[in-house]
Amino acid sequence: MLNNRPPQGAYVRRWSEFKWLPGALEALRLLNQSGYRVAIVSNQAGIGRGLMTETDLQDIHTRMSAEAEAAGGRIEQIYYCPHDWNHGCECRKPKPGMLFQAQRELNLDLSRTMFFGDDERDGEAADNAGCVFVRVSEEKSLIESVRDLLRTQTAEGMEHHAKANIDNRP
After folding, report:
1. CATH superfamily of the 15-167 domain
2. What pTM does this model have?
3. Digit-coded pLDDT (tens) for 125-168
4. Where are the chain's structural domains?
Protein backbone atom coordinates (compact mmCIF):
# COMPACT_ATOMS: atom_id res chain seq x y z
CA MET A 1 0.00 0.00 0.00
CA LEU A 2 2.97 2.31 0.55
CA ASN A 3 5.25 0.47 -1.84
CA ASN A 4 5.00 -1.58 -5.01
CA ARG A 5 3.83 -4.95 -3.83
CA PRO A 6 5.68 -7.98 -5.17
CA PRO A 7 3.71 -11.09 -6.17
CA GLN A 8 2.71 -13.56 -3.45
CA GLY A 9 5.75 -15.51 -2.27
CA ALA A 10 8.15 -12.74 -3.35
CA TYR A 11 9.39 -10.12 -0.92
CA VAL A 12 11.02 -6.72 -0.76
CA ARG A 13 14.17 -8.02 0.92
CA ARG A 14 16.39 -4.95 0.85
CA TRP A 15 16.02 -1.20 0.53
CA SER A 16 17.08 -1.21 -3.14
CA GLU A 17 13.91 -3.22 -3.90
CA PHE A 18 11.59 -0.81 -2.08
CA LYS A 19 9.69 1.55 -4.41
CA TRP A 20 7.19 4.06 -3.04
CA LEU A 21 3.79 4.03 -4.71
CA PRO A 22 2.84 7.34 -6.35
CA GLY A 23 1.31 9.66 -3.76
CA ALA A 24 2.26 7.54 -0.73
CA LEU A 25 4.70 10.07 0.72
CA GLU A 26 2.21 12.89 0.12
CA ALA A 27 -0.47 10.85 1.91
CA LEU A 28 1.81 10.43 4.93
CA ARG A 29 2.55 14.18 4.90
CA LEU A 30 -1.14 15.11 4.73
CA LEU A 31 -2.02 12.74 7.56
CA ASN A 32 0.78 14.15 9.70
CA GLN A 33 -0.20 17.76 8.96
CA SER A 34 -3.81 16.96 9.86
CA GLY A 35 -2.83 15.55 13.25
CA TYR A 36 -3.25 11.87 12.46
CA ARG A 37 -0.82 9.35 13.91
CA VAL A 38 0.43 6.69 11.51
CA ALA A 39 1.36 3.15 12.45
CA ILE A 40 2.14 0.41 9.98
CA VAL A 41 0.93 -3.17 10.46
CA SER A 42 2.55 -5.64 8.10
CA ASN A 43 2.87 -9.38 7.54
CA GLN A 44 6.51 -10.25 6.81
CA ALA A 45 6.54 -14.01 6.20
CA GLY A 46 9.80 -13.64 4.27
CA ILE A 47 11.56 -13.68 7.63
CA GLY A 48 9.88 -16.88 8.78
CA ARG A 49 10.55 -18.46 5.41
CA GLY A 50 14.28 -17.63 5.64
CA LEU A 51 14.26 -15.28 2.63
CA MET A 52 15.30 -12.22 4.63
CA THR A 53 16.40 -11.35 8.14
CA GLU A 54 14.91 -9.05 10.75
CA THR A 55 18.02 -6.89 10.26
CA ASP A 56 17.13 -6.56 6.56
CA LEU A 57 13.61 -5.51 7.51
CA GLN A 58 14.81 -3.04 10.16
CA ASP A 59 17.01 -1.38 7.53
CA ILE A 60 14.02 -1.02 5.21
CA HIS A 61 11.89 0.40 8.03
CA THR A 62 14.60 2.87 9.11
CA ARG A 63 15.05 4.20 5.58
CA MET A 64 11.31 4.23 4.91
CA SER A 65 10.69 6.27 8.09
CA ALA A 66 13.52 8.68 7.24
CA GLU A 67 12.16 9.31 3.73
CA ALA A 68 8.66 9.80 5.12
CA GLU A 69 9.97 12.38 7.60
CA ALA A 70 11.99 14.13 4.89
CA ALA A 71 8.73 14.46 2.92
CA GLY A 72 6.90 15.91 5.96
CA GLY A 73 5.24 12.70 7.13
CA ARG A 74 5.78 10.65 10.24
CA ILE A 75 5.50 6.94 10.93
CA GLU A 76 5.04 6.62 14.66
CA GLN A 77 5.46 2.87 14.90
CA ILE A 78 5.86 -0.17 12.67
CA TYR A 79 4.43 -3.53 13.72
CA TYR A 80 5.22 -6.66 11.77
CA CYS A 81 4.59 -10.37 11.95
CA PRO A 82 7.77 -12.29 11.07
CA HIS A 83 6.08 -15.68 11.01
CA ASP A 84 5.58 -18.02 8.06
CA TRP A 85 2.11 -18.29 6.51
CA ASN A 86 1.14 -21.43 8.43
CA HIS A 87 2.73 -20.64 11.79
CA GLY A 88 -0.62 -20.17 13.54
CA CYS A 89 0.45 -17.07 15.48
CA GLU A 90 -1.95 -14.44 16.78
CA CYS A 91 -0.16 -11.55 15.10
CA ARG A 92 -0.43 -12.48 11.42
CA LYS A 93 -3.24 -10.68 9.64
CA PRO A 94 -6.14 -11.43 9.34
CA LYS A 95 -5.83 -12.00 13.10
CA PRO A 96 -5.92 -8.71 15.00
CA GLY A 97 -2.89 -9.24 17.28
CA MET A 98 -0.76 -6.43 15.85
CA LEU A 99 -3.70 -4.03 16.01
CA PHE A 100 -4.29 -4.91 19.65
CA GLN A 101 -0.56 -4.39 20.31
CA ALA A 102 -0.78 -0.94 18.68
CA GLN A 103 -3.89 -0.22 20.74
CA ARG A 104 -2.01 -0.95 23.98
CA GLU A 105 1.25 0.77 23.07
CA LEU A 106 -0.20 3.85 21.36
CA ASN A 107 -3.32 4.16 23.51
CA LEU A 108 -5.67 3.89 20.51
CA ASP A 109 -9.43 3.74 20.42
CA LEU A 110 -9.71 1.13 17.68
CA SER A 111 -13.35 2.04 17.01
CA ARG A 112 -12.05 5.44 15.86
CA THR A 113 -8.96 4.11 14.09
CA MET A 114 -8.84 4.11 10.29
CA PHE A 115 -7.11 1.04 8.83
CA PHE A 116 -6.03 1.57 5.22
CA GLY A 117 -5.22 -1.68 3.46
CA ASP A 118 -4.94 -3.31 0.06
CA ASP A 119 -5.68 -6.93 0.93
CA GLU A 120 -8.75 -8.83 2.11
CA ARG A 121 -6.71 -9.93 5.17
CA ASP A 122 -6.37 -6.25 6.08
CA GLY A 123 -10.14 -5.87 6.01
CA GLU A 124 -10.61 -8.99 8.11
CA ALA A 125 -8.03 -7.80 10.66
CA ALA A 126 -9.76 -4.42 10.84
CA ASP A 127 -13.14 -6.10 11.37
CA ASN A 128 -11.66 -8.45 13.98
CA ALA A 129 -10.24 -5.47 15.89
CA GLY A 130 -13.23 -3.15 15.45
CA CYS A 131 -11.42 -0.67 13.20
CA VAL A 132 -12.88 1.30 10.31
CA PHE A 133 -11.44 -0.25 7.13
CA VAL A 134 -10.62 1.75 4.01
CA ARG A 135 -9.79 -0.38 0.97
CA VAL A 136 -6.93 0.93 -1.16
CA SER A 137 -6.51 -0.40 -4.69
CA GLU A 138 -5.31 0.50 -8.15
CA GLU A 139 -8.74 2.06 -8.70
CA LYS A 140 -8.54 4.15 -5.51
CA SER A 141 -5.05 4.89 -4.23
CA LEU A 142 -3.91 5.74 -0.74
CA ILE A 143 -3.53 9.43 -1.60
CA GLU A 144 -7.08 9.56 -3.01
CA SER A 145 -8.43 7.81 0.10
CA VAL A 146 -6.57 10.18 2.42
CA ARG A 147 -7.81 13.23 0.50
CA ASP A 148 -11.38 11.90 0.75
CA LEU A 149 -10.95 11.39 4.51
CA LEU A 150 -9.63 14.90 5.00
CA ARG A 151 -12.36 16.46 2.81
CA THR A 152 -15.01 14.62 4.82
CA GLN A 153 -13.39 15.66 8.08
CA THR A 154 -13.25 19.30 6.94
CA ALA A 155 -16.88 19.25 5.76
CA GLU A 156 -18.06 17.68 9.02
CA GLY A 157 -16.02 20.19 11.01
CA MET A 158 -17.47 23.09 9.03
CA GLU A 159 -21.00 21.72 9.45
CA HIS A 160 -20.46 21.30 13.20
CA HIS A 161 -18.97 24.81 13.42
CA ALA A 162 -21.92 26.29 11.49
CA LYS A 163 -24.38 24.49 13.78
CA ALA A 164 -22.49 25.70 16.84
CA ASN A 165 -22.62 29.28 15.53
CA ILE A 166 -26.35 29.02 14.83
CA ASP A 167 -27.02 27.45 18.22
CA ASN A 168 -24.99 30.13 20.02
CA ARG A 169 -26.63 33.18 18.50
CA PRO A 170 -28.06 35.62 21.08
Report:
1. HAD superfamily/HAD-like (3.40.50.1000)
2. 0.88
3. 999 999 999 999 989 999 999 999 999 887 776 554 444 445 44
4. 15-167
